[in-house]
Write a structure and sequence with these properties.
Blueprint (H helix, E strand, L loop, with lengths): L1 E9 L3 H9 L1 H7 L3 E6 L10 E8 L2 E13 L3 E8 L2 E12 L2 E12 L1 H36 L1
Antiparallel strand pairs: 1-7, 2-3, 3-4, 4-5, 5-6, 6-7
Length: 149
């Protein structure tokens, strides 16, 4: 298993930060590498929402199906997917802090079978870069929303 964690302070309200990470229609605007989203359920937010996300990963495109398995607005959201022999379990926790909002992100990647175990070490560097880019985009978008209010 591999774990990726990051914590940051964002000069925005918890509601703005939660919207950025928990609502795929907003996150699609926030994350520059997302090329498209297709909802697989009628619901667009909350537990049980399923969607297919296509994003640029270097010179390739990758499509992943995700499901919202926890949703506690405006505090916590969990997204889970099974892709390439790996279970991807990502939790975003949002809480007020002195500078506005603290965002904690934790992603656990649990490989299954030979394919997952072999590919996880190979994709880890690319994944770290993608997460840094997404988290930077979240901060910029949230702080931009706050500045325009």
């Amino acid at each position: 298993m591999a774990t990726f964690e990051n914590q940051m302070s964002i000069a925005a309200t918890p509601e703005v930060v939660f919207d950025a990470v928990a609502h795929i229609e907003t996150f699609e605007q926030v994350a520059p590498d997302i090329l498209g989203v297709e909802f697989l359920t009628e619901s667009r937010k909350g537990v049980g929402t399923r969607f297919r996300e296509t994003r640029a990963m270097g010179s390739r495109e990758a499509t992943t199906e995700l499901e919202v398995t926890e949703y506690e607005a405006p505090r916590r959201v969990r997204l889970v997917s099974e892709e390439g022999g790996i279970t991807w379990d990502t939790v975003f926790e949002v809480s007020p802090d002195a500078d506005g909002t603290r965002l904690d992100m934790r992603m656990e990647a649990t490989p299954h079978g030979l394919k997952g175990k072999a590919s996880l070490p190979l994709i880890t560097p690319m994944l770290n870069k993608a997460l840094e880019k997404d988290l930077g985009a979240i901060v910029a978008w949230c702080e931009g929303q706050t500045a325009s209010e």
